[in-house]
Amino acid sequence: GGKRRGGQKLRAADIMIAVRTSRKFHQSRLALLLATWIPRARVQTIVFTDGEDKELEKTSGITMVQTHCPPVHSSQALTCKLASEYRTFLHSGRRWFCHVDDDNYVNPRALSDLLARYRSSEELYLGRASLDHPIEATERIGNKTRSVNFWFATGGAGFCLSRALAVRMLPWVGGAALAGASERIRLPDDCTLGYIVQRWLHVALTPCPLFHSHLENLALIPASRLSAQVTLSYGVIDNRTNVVNLRGPFSISEDPSRFHSLHCLLFPDTSWCPRQVH
Ligand code: UDP
Ligand code: MN
């Protein structure tokens, strides 16, 4: 773990959770989040997308930002969305910027408990270390290349930046700078962020195992520990579904992502969760 000097009382409005999505996922992935954790984190959440959906914005009551980024899965398009999230965070004046993908479940209580252990006035980059060693990349400046090593947080598990770090990052992330950095090392947005934080700002990643992406085997998280995790996810590994291991209350066919079951574990007072047996 990182430094824990004192920590800080946090209100919901001190945190910005940026959810990255795409118009094509509004009715599927985003709808699942809107049916589960997002209503429990209304104050924190802003959705970043690439196509208008006035209807959804109205029915959900959640702020949606039109990034005008291309609606594709390219590294450029995803970097464009991350840069938009960053700009919105800087203007927001909030203390913590947390990014998640639209296949993440965020436990707002666990997130708030985690961040309260730190100070947003210190330069912090919190997330799940993507590898158990630094990534080796090739940096190209002009026609010179050199090998660089750095740690980065898996974007698909979510990560958080303190305001102090985000502010100092401006020359490297503002305007077209993030896109430039991504081109310079030819790696995706999450690697690029790690590169900027470690190589240009000399801040170390604070590794946090409470963030989870679908790149890891989610069934290995003990059911008794699920409620302590900050983020979870769902997906496919080697043609097999990769989801958290929860018996119920909903079946795999009713709830393939397991997010409804997880939500009832965390928020049993939700109207559509089965009443608890006394
Ligand atoms: N995404 C996007 N535009 C696209 C496809 C994906 O913004 O055309 C977003 C998606 O909503 C998610 C993130 O990029 O937040 C990662 O996409 P996905 O989970 O499909 O792929 P992964 O990188 O996890 O394999
Ligand atoms: Mn994903």
Automatic annotation (TrEMBL):
Name the UniProt record assigns to this protein: LFNG O-fucosylpeptide 3-beta-N-acetylglucosaminyltransferase
Positions of the Fringe-like glycosyltransferase domain: 9-258
UniProt GO cellular component terms: endomembrane system; membrane
Membrane-crossing residue ranges in chain numbering: none
Family: Belongs to the glycosyltransferase 31 family.
Lineage top rank: taxon: Eukaryota
Major subcellular location class: membrane
Localization: Endomembrane system; Membrane
Bilayer topology annotation: Single-pass membrane protein; Single-pass type II membrane protein
Keywords: Glycosyltransferase, Membrane, Signal, Signal-anchor, Transferase, Transmembrane, Transmembrane helix
UniProt GO molecular function: glycosyltransferase activity
